[in-house]
Design a protein that fits this description.
The complex is a heterodimer of chains A (67) and B (519). Chain A is mainly α and 67 residues long. Chain A contains two helices and no strands. Chain A starts with a helix and ends with a helix. With 519 residues, chain B is an alpha/beta fold. Chain B has two domains: 226 residues, Alpha-Beta Complex (Aspartate Aminotransferase, domain 1), CATH 3.90.1150; 241 residues, Type I PLP-dependent aspartate aminotransferase-like (Major domain) (Aspartate Aminotransferase, domain 2), CATH 3.40.640.10. In chain B, helix 7 runs parallel beside helix 8 and helix 9 packs parallel to helix 10. Chain B is globular, with a radius of gyration of 24 Å. Helix content of chain B is 41%, strand content 14%. In chain B, helix 11 links the parallel strand 8 and strand 9. Chain B contains 17 helices and 15 strands. Chain B has a seven-stranded mixed beta sheet, sandwiched between helices. In chain B, strands 2-3-13 form a three-stranded mixed beta sheet. Classes of the chains: A mainly alpha (67), B alpha/beta (519). The interface between A and B is medium-sized, with 15 and 21 residues.
Chain lengths: 67, 519
């Protein structure tokens, strides 16, 4: 039980490392990492929220238009 | 961008050799078998994204520095406002300030011992993100996979060291004069005779610095009115020599004999670009082993082309003398060709002989011409006694069984290390017999993480990125040595396997990615 929890945390740590390495955040200072991550989080969360709010209505009206 | 397509077999071999030499061409294929795998698309995209993000943050930090919110830490042009030509080129200094300095601790580490197979690195810590360092005084012991110590002559005990100390006691250090005035000693003559005999040519001349050998002697053999055809991956010392000479130069694609032949034909047919006068002479400049690619020049085809089109061949064997060939005599020995076919053989004593300096070897008339006209000979202080004695001792050692053991050990190490890395699924460039092993890492953050993690595990490597290599192809270059034992190589392979899994460096699509324990 404890072993699988440890492995899960290791996996999350590995994912975070991949994020840092692939976007070159690994080379930047901590405040720059925080700034970039905040921006990325803001953009992605705005996109997801807009999709969540508007997509059902858009899809429904598109189906209505084409049927 | 140059296409890095897969070329498992040199296609030119089939063109240049006829059917009677079928078995010979199969051997040639094996000697020239080199691989340059294509960059995977996701790696290229992620590398560009990384550099874009670094650029964005670079602009942000530059803006903060310009508007005085942050202090300027780097070098500043003091007369920028007075209208002089700028002292620092703008993109180069931008790159240095914002990308190089962030990870500067992985480059230029000072070492604290002889650069043998295992050595000591000084420990340095930075409190302000690599703008300044403080040395703790401690040293870190690490396996050395970065020094050019191909035959393991960088050692402080042994017959070479004893001879060197005796030489120092007899002749002291400085000669206080140039070769042409009163600085030529007996050991200089002995060195030049020994090197000429070792290479199988008529005569040789030695200089104190390998870089200067190229940069200051190409102007002696080439001048205005000549054409120099150089490989695109040539070392900066050759390029500097070509520019200083005043001759016209063109580059041909790396190791591509068809391209070279096309350019030779065009040069002979058309002559100078505007006047159509014929070229006074055409010199082809190649290197024996290219240190950033690990590839070997195609010497048999080059000699055929040179004889067909009556050009001259200049081969820079800095990394291959001592390291390649059955008896360590370089690429000429590796391909078993006549050493008199290469007009100008150049090499250095820094890499395989554990010393310093360079030489040029060839016909006596050429070397006599260089002796009179070369600035590196007439104005440079002559080589020091312990340096020359080290070369003489190592050359004499190479002729005997001890030297042969070292050469075999190096070839064995190179084949083993390369085979294991390729089987694990990493992208390795170059010829499968060369002792220089470049492994591609692509992304700048992965390069820094690889370097730091390897040092944490006790292995010191040399990682290179832009501008020494192309922007996409940042790599780590392992230089193997005859002094590395199988245990050291295994320890290194284990560490590479672990770090490679941790930061997912197994890019190769041609070889299945495998862990070391599964091999």
């Amino acid at each position: 039980m404890l072993e699988s929890v440890r492995r899960f945390f290791k996996f999350i740590h590995w994912l975070y490392l991949q994020y840092l390495l692939n976007t070159a955040l690994y080379m930047l200072e901590p405040w720059e990492r925080a700034l970039f991550s905040a921006f990325l989080f803001a953009i992605i969360s705005t996109a997801l929220y807009s999709a969540f709010v508007f997509l059902p209505h858009h899809v429904r009206s598109m189906i209505q238009f084409y049927s | 961008m140059k296409s890095t397509n897969f070329r498992m077999v040199n296609k030119n071999v089939e063109i240049n050799y006829d059917n009677n030499n079928k078995s010979k061409s199969i051997d040639e294929d094996d000697l020239q078998c080199e691989e340059f795998e294509e960059t995977p698309l996701y790696a290229a995209v992620l590398t560009y994204i990384s550099y874009a993000i670094l650029c964005l943050f670079g602009w942000l930090r530059d803006f903060l520095r310009q508007s005085k919110i942050e202090k300027k830490r780097g070098a500043v042009d003091p007369n920028a406002s007075l209208g002089f030509v700028p002292l620092y080129q703008s993109y180069e200094s931008f790159y240095t300030r914002n990308m190089y300095t962030r990870v500067r601790d992985i480059f230029n580490r000072p070492i604290a011992s002889v650069p043998g197979p295992q050595f000591e690195l000084t420990e340095r810590i930075s409190d302000d993100y690599n703008w300044t360092y403080r040395y703790t005084g401690k040293t870190v012991s690490a396996i050395n996979l970065g020094s050019y110590n191909y035959l393991g002559f960088a050692e402080k005990t042994g017959p070479c060291a004893i001879d060197t100390i005796n030489g120092l006691k007899s002749y002291a250090i400085a000669n206080c004069s140039t070769r042409s005035e009163i600085g030529t000693q007996r050991y200089h003559i002995e060195l030049e005779q020994l090197v000429a005999e070792f290479l199988g040519v008529e005569s040789c001349i030695a200089f104190g610095m390998g870089f200067a050998t190229n940069a200051l002697n190409i102007p002696v053999i080439a001048s205005k009115g000549d054409l120099i055809l150089s490989d695109e991956m040539n070392h900066i010392s050759l390029i500097l020599g070509m520019r200083l000479s005043g001759a016209c130069y063109q580059t041909f694609e790396h190791n591509d004999m068809n391209d070279l032949e096309k350019k030779l034909r065009a040069a002979i047919v058309h002559g100078h670009s505007r006047t159509n006068r014929p070229w006074k002479k055409i010199i082809i400049v190649v290197e024996g082993v290219y240190s950033m690619e690990g590839s070997i020049c195609r010497l048999p085809q080059l000699i055929e082309l040179k004889k067909k089109y009556k050009a001259y061949l200049y081969m820079d064997e800095a990394h291959s003398i001592g390291a390649m060939g059955k008896s360590g005599r370089g690429i000429v020995d590796y391909f078993n060709v006549n050493s008199n076919d290469v007009d100008i053989l150049m090499g250095t004593f820094t890499k395989s002989f554990g010393s310093a300096g360079g030489y040029i070897a060839g016909k006596k008339s050429l070397i006599d011409h260089i002796r009179v006209n070369s600035h590196a000979h007439t104005y440079a202080s002559s080589m020091s006694a312990p340096i020359v004695q080290q070369i003489i001792s190592s050359l004499q050692l190479l002729k005997g069984p001890e030297g042969q053991k070292r050469i075999n050990q190096l070839a064995d190490n190179a084949r083993y290390f390369r085979r294991k890395l390729v089987d694990m699924g990493f992208i390795i460039y170059g010829n499968k017999y060369s002792p220089v092993v470049p492994m591609l890492l692509y992304m700048p953050a992965r390069v820094t993480r690889f370097n730091r993690e390897m040092l944490r595990r006790g292995i010191a490597v040399v990682t290179v990125g832009f501008p020494a290599t192309k922007l996409l192809e940042a790599r780590v270059r392992f230089c193997l040595s005859a002094a590395h034992t199988r245990q050291m190589l295994d320890a290194a392979l284990e560490a590479i396997d672990e770090v490679g899994t941790d930061i997912s460096l197994r890019y190769s699509t041609r070889h299945k990615p495998q862990r070391l324990k599964d091999l």
